[in-house]
Amino acid sequence: MSMYVRKEKQVTLRSMNAQDIEEVREVGQVAWSDLAMHDLGRRFKYPKRSEKIIEAYLAADPDGCIVAEADGKIVGSGFCHTWGKVGWTGPLEVLPMYQDHGVGRKLLGACESQLLERGCTVIGLETMCHLAKNLHFYLSSGYRPGQSTLIMEKVLRHEKDPLDDVREVTIDDIDAGLATVSRLSEKINPQLDYASEAGSILRRRLGNVYVMDEGSGPLGCALLHTYQRGEEATYSSVKALLVDPEAPDPLSVLDRLMARCERTSLEGGKSKLLTRFATADTRMYDQMITRAYVLKGMNLRMLKHGEYDERGRGSITSWAG
Ligand SMILES: CC(C)(COP(=O)(O)OP(=O)(O)OC[C@H]1O[C@@H](n2cnc3c(N)ncnc32)[C@H](O)[C@@H]1OP(=O)(O)O)[C@@H](O)C(=O)NCCC(=O)NCCS
Predict the structure, then answer these.
(1) Rounded to whole angstroms, how far apart are CA atoms 57 and 228?
(2) Which residue CA neighbors atom 27 of ligand 1 most closely?
(3) What sign does the dihedral 258-278-84-58 (CA atoms) show?
(4) Whose CA is nearest to atom 1 of ligand 1?
(5) d(CA 169, CA 243)
(6) pTM of the model
(7) CB within 8 A of 72, min separation 6: which ones?
(8) Does residue 8 surpass a pLDDT of 50?
(9) CA distances (Å), origin 257, targets 93, 178, 282, 317
(10) Domains of the chain: residue spans and CATH
(11) Per-residue pLDDT at 154
(12) How far apart, in whole angstroms, are the C-alpha atoms of residue 79 and residue 87?
């Protein structure tokens, strides 16, 4: 509990609709720019979140996209994501002048209710672990700290990696592709299913989905997002990369799939590839260093409901919106 008595601001929560997208993008931009100013000590105008990404969130789960309104204007927003039985919230944003009046907590509670309604057995999120406010906000909302998530980035350059054993899933073979994504997800954690995320990438043209096959069947898959904050962003991001826990050499599966994502990004005019992954061992970090990735920061995964861990090595998963 805080040491001072604060006044709650009166807000109403409702589901977001397509007409709200621009206002929601502005709220996000203002909230993150304000955070950057306090965090970094200098003015920085954050790019707006991609419209296409918000449209995809809305299409995937309209009731899971929630806005807080005061005096007819949007002052905060929160998004729910359901990957099988794994549910997470993000991004969560409140206009600075409405912060510290309980709006964030209301939005978070509404997101959790939606995720519970969808039958999620795991509910969590990821946040910046160097921000005392965010840690307090989530800890005092019942979230316990879990694994760390490393944020790594690579400046892309032409390389001669072999790419033949990685194939792209196209809209024509979407059913088989999504079945593979589901199978690999389940092997990593029985509650996890990335098929809806992969489906959204393919149907809404947000990026590419790749599968790495060997004679015995798929060893891994990668979900690449080429749309980022601001459609013209110079980077793309590996949203997920799943490696079969029984793969004989999991880190080489990671390596081949990353090489494919890097090539596509470079060919698409991107200069950087960003990725975030929860990790409990340093071998994956070493592998990423070998691929010339640089550490940019660290987030913290936090869990409110259920238990969650991942089998195998080399997979990239992140609950960040
Ligand atoms: C995180 C965020 C959504 C919270 O929204 P909010 O409306 O301010 O949240 P609430 O008012 O419900 O709760 C804030 C809590 O943090 C506390 N707090 C504020 N500043 C703090 C600080 N410097 N250190 C510790 N706690 C702090 C408040 O006292 C309050 O706790 P209390 O209820 O125990 O008194 C909002 O700050 C935001 O938009 N931040 C920028 C974007 C961001 O970081 N999003 C989250 C990404 S995971």
Answers:
(1) 13
(2) 133
(3) negative
(4) 134
(5) 16
(6) 0.95
(7) none
(8) yes
(9) 33, 17, 19, 14
(10) 12-120 (3.40.630.30), 152-305 (3.40.630.30)
(11) 98
(12) 11
The pLDDT value given to residue 6: 64
SS3 of 102, please?
coil
pLDDT tens-place string over residues 200-246: 999 999 999 999 998 788 999 999 999 766 656 889 999 999 999 99
> Taking Cα atoms as reference points, which of 260, 321, 86 lies closest to residue 188?
86
Structure tokens at 152: 């790594």
Q: What is the pLDDT of residues 254-302, one digit of tens each?
A: 999 999 999 999 999 999 999 999 987 899 999 999 999 999 999 999 9
Cβ < 6 Å from ligand 1: which residues? 1-2, 31-32, 35, 90-94, 99-105, 127, 132-134, 136-137, 140
Structural contact between residues 95 and 75, judged by C-beta atoms closer than 8 angstroms? yes
Record the tokens describing residue 233, joined without a space: 């962003």
- Note the pLDDT of residue 2: 47
- 90-to-77, 129, 269, 274 alpha-carbon distances in Å: 9, 15, 28, 18
Does residue 166 have a pLDDT over 80?
yes
- Ligand 1 centre from 20 Cα, in Å? 23
Q: Are strands 272-279 and 144-155 parallel, antiparallel or unpaired?
A: antiparallel
Task: Determine the atom of ligand 1 nearest the C-alpha atom of 101.
Answer: 11
Contact 46, 233 (CB under 8 A): no
What average pLDDT is seen over the chain?
93
| 321 token code pair | 């919106």
Measured CA to CA, the distance from residue 258 to residue 221 in angstroms comes to 10
**In which residue are the tokens 């709220």 written?**
27
Tell me how far apart the alpha carbons of residues 152 and 287 are, in angstroms, rounded to a whole number: 12
How far does residue 193's CA lie from ligand 1's centre (Å)?
Answer: 31
SS (H, E, C) 151-198: EEEEECCCCCCCCCCEEECCHHHHHHHHHHHHHHHHHHCCCECCHHHH
